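step=encode ok
step=design start
structure_in=
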């Protein structure tokens, strides 16, 4: 697990450093660590994969979009793919606003203007989806209110339309954590099988 800028391990200053730079500093830190590991002699440099859930899924989408020839496979669990659309549907709309560095007052939510959408789009992995070549497995909960499942489905459909090996799994009666017994069991089996196939 990478303690990227914006994580709690760096304290408040570290968390605040990511505001307005999400999809940039955090992605940079993750790629830096991936490259350090890849060149360390500890892992097979030709068999690098990435996996993340929630913000980790967001980072995973960014990594395969920014570095399309680097990762052999990717698993995204309930990822934020488009911060602007997630802002309009999430049970925590303040996440997209805060991470984008947009002032807000939840007592008086802002209208999502073209300027706000443009800013959040630039910080969204969907903005680099056209570059993705990496096979992706997207895992979603049908009851996720934090990151509604259409976020991951948009990623899946877009990649499928570009003939990228993309697969999606929808877990019924599961929210953001994908922590139901069946989701845990089938999910881990699917991740293992996907990585064995591609890595």
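sequence_out=
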């Amino acid at each position: 697990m990478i303690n990227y800028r914006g994580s709690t391990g760096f304290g408040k200053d570290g968390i605040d450093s990511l505001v307005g730079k999400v999809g940039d500093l955090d992605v940079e830190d993750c790629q830096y660590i991936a490259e350090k590991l890849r060149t360390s002699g500890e892992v097979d440099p030709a068999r690098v994969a990435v996996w993340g859930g929630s913000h980790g899924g967001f980072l995973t989408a960014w990594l395969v979009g920014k570095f399309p020839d680097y990762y052999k496979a990717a698993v995204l669990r309930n990822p934020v793919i488009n911060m602007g659309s997630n802002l309009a549907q999430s049970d925590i709309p303040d996440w997209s606003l805060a991470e984008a560095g947009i002032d807000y007052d939840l007592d008086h939510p802002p209208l999502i203007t073209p300027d706000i959408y443009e800013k959040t789009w630039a910080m969204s992995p969907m903005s680099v989806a056209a570059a993705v070549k990496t096979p992706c497995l997207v895992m979603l909960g049908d009851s996720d209110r934090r990151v509604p499942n259409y976020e991951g489905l948009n990623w899946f459909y877009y990649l499928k339309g570009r003939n990228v090996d993309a697969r999606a799994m929808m877990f019924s009666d599961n929210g953001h954590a994908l922590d139901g017994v069946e989701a845990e069991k089938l999910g881990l089996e699917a991740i293992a099988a996907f990585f064995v196939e591609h890595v």
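step=design ok
step=annotate ok -> DSSP finds eight helices and four strands in the chain.
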